[in-house]
Known about the structure:
The structure holds 2 protein chains of 2 kinds.
Chain A: E1 10-14, E2 20-24, E3 29-32, E4 38-40, E5 52-55, E6 67-69, H1 72-75, H2 77-88, E7 110-116, E8 121-126, H3 127-137, H4 140-149, H5 155-164, H6 168-171, E9 179-185, E10 190-195, H7 198-207, H8 219-228, E11 263-270, H9 275-284, H10 290-293, H11 296-299, H12 320-331, E12 380-387, E13 418-422, H13 423-427, H14 433-436, H15 444-449, H16 452-476, E14 482-486, H17 491-498, E15 507-512, H18 516-523, H19 527-534, H20 546-550, E16 565-579, E17 586-587, E18 598-604, H21 611-626, H22 630-633
Parallel strand pairs in A: 11-12, 11-14, 12-13, 14-15
Antiparallel strand pairs in A: 1-2, 1-10, 3-4, 5-6, 5-10, 7-8, 7-9, 15-18, 16-17, 16-18
Chain B: E1 24-30, E2 33-38, E3 54-57, E4 60-63, E5 75-80, H1 95-100, E6 142-152, H2 156-162, H3 172-181, E7 189-193, H4 199-208, H5 213-218, E8 228-233, H6 236-248, E9 255-259, H7 262-265, E10 278-281, H8 286-289, E11 329-335, H9 338-350, E12 354-373, E13 384-385, H10 391-423, H11 427-436, H12 442-452, H13 462-475, E14 484-489, E15 499-505, H14 511-520, E16 528-530, H15 535-552, H16 554-569
Parallel strand pairs in B: 7-8, 7-10, 8-9, 10-11, 12-13
Antiparallel strand pairs in B: 1-2, 1-6, 3-4, 5-6, 11-15, 12-14, 12-15
Residues 167-170, 193-194, 196-200, 232-235, 238, 260-263, 282-284 of chain B line the site of S-adenosylmethionine.
Amino acid sequence: MHSIIRPNAWVALKLPSGNTKVLQVTPNTTISLGKYGSFPTNLILGRPYHVTFELQDKRPDESFSRLHIVPADELYAEVFAEEEAADCVAPAASGSGNGHDTVISAAGGDEYSLVDDKGNVVARSDRAVLDESARQRLTQDEIEELKREGNNAGKDVIAKLLLSHTALDQKTSFSLAKYKLLKTKKYIRRFQVLPLDVATFAQWQLDERDASKILDMRAEMIGLVGCWANVHFGGHDVFLPDPNASPGQGAQACPPVDEKLLRGRWLVVDDTCGLLVAAMAERMGVLHEQGSEEGEGEESKAPSQQLPVVTKAETQAPTPAAAAAAAAAATTTTTTSTAQKDGDTEMTDAAGEPAPQPSDAQPKAKKPRPSDFMIPYSQTNTITVLHSSSQPNLSFLNYWGFDIASPNHPPHPLLNHLLTLSWLQLLQPELDSSYATPPPTASPETLASWKPSRRGNFHRKRRRFARTRYVVDSTRAGGFSGLVCASTMDPISILRHTLPLLAGGAPVAIYSPTIEPLAALADCFSVPRRTAWVGGGAPEIEGLSNEELERWPGNERFPLNPTLLQGVSIQTSRARRWQVLPGRTHPLMTERGGAEGFVFTAWRAKPAEGKVAAKGKFKRRKVEPAAGKPQDATPGVETPASG
Amino acid sequence: MASQPEPAVSPFLDPGPRTKAHSLAILQLSRDNLLPVYLQPPTGEHDGYAEGAVVNTRYGSFPHYTMLNVPWGSQIRASKVDTGSRGRKRKRDGADDTSREATAAASEKDGEGPGAVATPTQETGGGGGGGGGGAPVVKQAVADSSGFIHVLPPTPELWTTSLPHRTQVVYTPDYSYILHRIRARPGSTLIEAGAGSGSFSHAAVRAVYNGYPAAAAAAAAGGQRKGKVFSFEYHEDRYHKMKQEISDHGLDGLIQLTHRDVYNGGFLVDGKSPEADAIFLDLPAPWEALPHLSRRRPPPSLWPSGAPPPGLDDPARAWVSPLHPRKTVHLCTFSPCIEQVTRTVSAMRRLGWVDIDMVEIANRRLHASRDRVGLNLVNFDRGVNNSAKDVEEAVTRLAEIEARFREHAAKARSRAAGAGAGAGAGAGGADAAGAGDVDMDSDDETAAAAAAGDGNTAPRPAAEEEEETAAAKTDGLPPWMEGRLITRGEPEIKTHTSYLVFAALPMEWTEEDEARAAAKYPVGQEQKVIGTIDKAIRKQERREQLQKQQPGSKKARRKERDEKLGEVLG
Ligand SMILES: C[S@@+](CC[C@H](N)C(=O)[O-])C[C@H]1O[C@@H](n2cnc3c(N)ncnc32)[C@H](O)[C@@H]1O
């Protein structure tokens, strides 16, 4: 998917310390790795991901370090040496540190540097080289001393060896006092660049940032939730035709929801700042921008123009405007970095249909501007986010170039595939002003007489109305292909309002960092509760129609209609990581603790019509011979105790 | 059968709102008892039975047409089917027929008896092909009271637990993690070997699917690659079964299965590169397959036998790599034994794979239930523990017994006293004295309790139980809400499936590539520094983090502790 590091991409630098640094690779900047050194960003642009770069020593005439791609053989030199040693050494000796050939016993990857009193490195060498020269230059006694004293002693001998690699020892009198011997990790100046996809981002957030922001959601859980909710590409885009409503037409000109067209839609409750949405979008093929997915091979042949110089101050956190501007700059030659400044006023939109766009460098053929009531969302392959505040918190999507709050967004696949609405809009839309306030109307003449800003405002209101109306109405129409949650809200209350919206057979997958909320949820579907519900133990539901039962508001005895889910199950997964090295293969000694993480899964069932009556009769008849075991009376209800 | 129309889009990828004829459906008998069935239309042609195919389960009989054109997820009631002479004349048709119609083996219509045999035999793919009912039920079948099932749309998860097993398979906890890690996404090209029972293949094709290739040709101008799975299997029988499944499931064109020994034959298809960017190897010896997955011809020493397999040993023939030339390739191997891992990892290192990472997935299922402990709980469901739920209840109970005993003893005494008074002192007096003595045996106690008549001791008369049921219904919690909600694991857990070894192979980078990139992104115009781990920034970050942590951790904990202390002291 990503193979070439593109300008302005968000990437993860894997540092020698094992830490990850996430940043946006802006052309013509310098990337500092802190104490490890710094290098020009342009040296990694257009280069492949996943290779290992090594910072080289500065050339005398240059003020920066150049990079060198380390061949894989070099990465594994230590292991290969060990493997070869193990091959010729009797198995009994394996594992002990004082191998025959090894003169200087040092932990794998160590490197020694000799630093003078001004802090300049005068010599640097790794074990292999030192071993070699030790054998040539040292006396047997000295070698014995090195072996005996192991890592920390024998410093003088090592320093002497190192010095012998420089021209210094011939000229200067051998004075170790002037030099400091440092043992450094050889790979200290090596790093990798990884594409910032969902897996990498989540790991970084979990290990090095704030795990609580993503509800401690580990990779295992992201995988499980995605699979159990059956999240996948939900079909090619289908758009409603533009109703071409004139400015004089009101709400009745909005295109009605056509349930037959709606397919491959997932409903989401996301309190992970958008990580869950990102994970789903990635599975559905709408997270990464087209450009970054295909044509990498051609990338290098693309006309190489002068790159826009981004002078705006940039912060570490992804600022949407900057990202958007950067993305725009990357796709077109003109840098319109101020285009996003206007926020909600949408001055740039005010031009309306006939007025020419100010950007004369638009390479694409101009399409006629869609009318206000045109629905920009695809009917298929969509994610609908239900949020509890007035705005959804999906801030992490900024790492993938998408800003939910940006009114005039550069092209991004999520624009047509991500729908958001608040719980109020779902449950009581008439109380939501953006839904309930009718769109403004005006005759074309009146409209033409207005100032552009007022006209822009007019169109913006109408557009917003049509979109809100569509999002709310289509969501309330139900028929969703699945429900995915990672929320701090009580899952019972979430299901109460979302179960009716799910298509029959649609999977439900709910993540929770702790098991308690999920256990309480599963308890709503317990065998005894179902038995009571279908067996006439619930006087409160007598006489209710199937439709009414589907929208059962819940009470204390039956928080949810227990027949609306099938195959209820709770699980947890944990990856245990191993070290695999010759003769030293074992599980890691420590791993991340914290929340364990659990997933609740089930499928939406469509209870048979008239079930209650039939069931009751059936049970009564049945009870006598079968000695009243509820399990027998309710086949099809999962009976974990007996299964 | 060959004339049956192929579904346009696989039911795995878009099942539509309702069940369809000739399409796969998964019948859920109970949570873990799933039965895949290809629903047959009621043509009357099936096996000469007018009513068409019937699925017989321990929950009753289900004619296919009762499950046709219903919304997915529907609860289907059993039908009364006259089985007549059916059941004895079971016949085994060819593989084609059995795989199309996975009805259960023979069963009786009174399958409602829990002891009835007819557990569907999933492993055989519905071995008994005699799915037709006996007497032609042309009209609506009569609903039977024996039970119901649910009809679910196929998904890889449901398929994995219901598919006909031909080999060990990869289950959801593993494949969900693997596909996430090897970046199998819409548009990816994935190589898989061996196909085995196709469990992983189904999950893989869902992950990479972004349209059928036919549509791709039309949209070729857009240039978006269609995701595809290239699968390999050398076991002939498995290959044929899997091939049939792929087309039965409408996955032709999305999974391309090749009959091949990949150790010797490698991964090219028709001599061409699949250009894979994700690979999954579930083979006994992954290191035998790995050299084929190289970007360049590997030196002879890197082949396990010390030389390339026949056909690849001609240095004059150009090396064609099955990998995508301009993408990082992500790989996972799946091996049950640690020795396999050691060899695999060693081979990976020599072949230039990086980011080698080995993990093992432990998955557990948990069951939520009510822990119902208490002297007064009704045996509504199984598993009530009629012992004291806490010390208070125990003490109350003991005190009650004590009181009743005393009462009983007092009554006895007064009776004795009365008798004595009436008939003169004598033997009676001695009795009473004995009862009042320390030396009291258990019979007396039981008698006392029984006399007290509260019915709270373990063996209770049925009448009393009923009384209590009524009591609980009216003023107490309903029985399903009693007790503490607990979770516990399954009785048996899988502690080891396989070791997962992950690795990545970056694209090749030549001097020319570097020269081109260097020309395109010249250095020397650096404006500012990014990514500094500057002291000021770090301090700021740390301050922010501390602020964030405090309410969640230290502060909150301190507050909690203070509150507890308050409770204890107050
Ligand atoms: C454990 S099964 C794979 C199961 C599969 N991953 C699934 O989920 O259903 C291993 C399969 O690899 C096949 N196999 C073994 N060696 C092979 C080879 N050299 N080339 C192709 N297939 C091979 C076997 O026939 C077997 O079907």
